[in-house]
Each structure stands twice: as structure tokens, then as C-alpha cells.
Amino acid sequence: MKKNILYLALICVVPAILYILSLEVVIPIPSDESHMNLTEEIQCSPCHGEGKEHARKETHPPKDLCFKCHQQEND
Ligand code: HEC
Ligand code: HEC
User: Fold this and answer.
1) Alpha-carbon torsion angle 66, 67, 68, 74, nearest 10
2) Cα–Cα 20 to 30 A to 22, which of 15, 49, 68, 74?
3) Ligand 2 pocket, residue 64 CB under 6 Å
């Protein structure tokens, strides 16, 4: 009996976690020339860093873990 409850809980929790994670993914990284072969977050700052040509908006979430939210379109 106890085992069944655990199993049920697992079935409910796994999709919930996946759903929450999927919400974090926003605008995909375009798959154009500027974004080819980018594997590290520091590579973003020359273009998207503060005061740079394509700086993010002021409303942009502050975190610097770009890939957590933005992923390449053709994964
Ligand atoms: C060589 C310069 C360059 C580099 C490096 C670069 N980008 Fe970009 N990025 C651009 C340009 C240009 C655009 C399109 C212009 C715009 O929409 O402001 C763009 C657009 C984007 C967009 C879509 C914006 C929209 O409105 O649709 C995202 C998301 C993005 N970049 C994320 C990243 C991430 C994450 C990295 C690092 C892995 C990165 N970029 C590295 C130049 C660059
Ligand atoms: C916590 C999630 C999250 C992280 C981490 C994140 N972004 Fe974003 N990004 C977003 C959201 C949400 C938007 C849409 C913002 C809006 O419409 O105001 C966005 C929009 C953008 C845009 C489009 C222009 C703009 O300001 O709206 C660019 C370019 C971009 N992000 C680049 C980056 C780069 C580069 C990094 C890493 C330094 C990064 N993002 C990290 C969530 C994130």
C-alpha cells in the first residue's frame, strides 16, 4: 500500500517538474550566423552585454545563465 502511494506521487511530481522547467524556456536563440557554435555564456556578452549593440532590455531577467532560458531552435 505504501509503495502504491509513493508510485502515485512520483507519477504526479515528474510531469509537474517538467512543466515548470518548460516555462523557463522563452525566446529561442536564433539559428543565424551570429549564434552558430556558441557554447558558453560569456560568448553572448560582446553583443548582448550591458551597453553593447544588442543589449537586452531593462526588463530582461537579471540572471546570466542564458541557456537555462534560451535554447537553440534546432536542438
Ligand atoms: C555576434 C553577435 C552576437 C552574439 C555573440 C550573440 N548574439 Fe544573440 N543576437 C544578435 C543579433 C544581431 C540578434 C538579432 C537582433 C535583435 O533582435 O536585437 C540577436 C538575437 C538574439 C535573441 C532573440 C531576440 C529576439 O528578439 O528574438 C536571443 C534570445 C539571443 N540573441 C540570445 C543570445 C545568446 C544566449 C547568446 C550567447 C550564447 C547570443 N545571443 C550571442 C547578436 C549576437
Ligand atoms: C530567467 C530566464 C532568462 C535568462 C537566464 C536569460 N534570459 Fe534572455 N530573455 C528572457 C525573457 C523572459 C525574455 C523576454 C523579455 C521581454 O520580452 O521583456 C528574454 C529576451 C532576451 C532577448 C531579446 C531582447 C530583450 O531584451 O527582450 C535577448 C537578446 C536575450 N534575452 C538574451 C539573453 C542573454 C545573452 C542571456 C545571458 C546573459 C539571457 N538572455 C538570459 C529570459 C531569460
Assistant:
1) 140
2) 49
3) yes
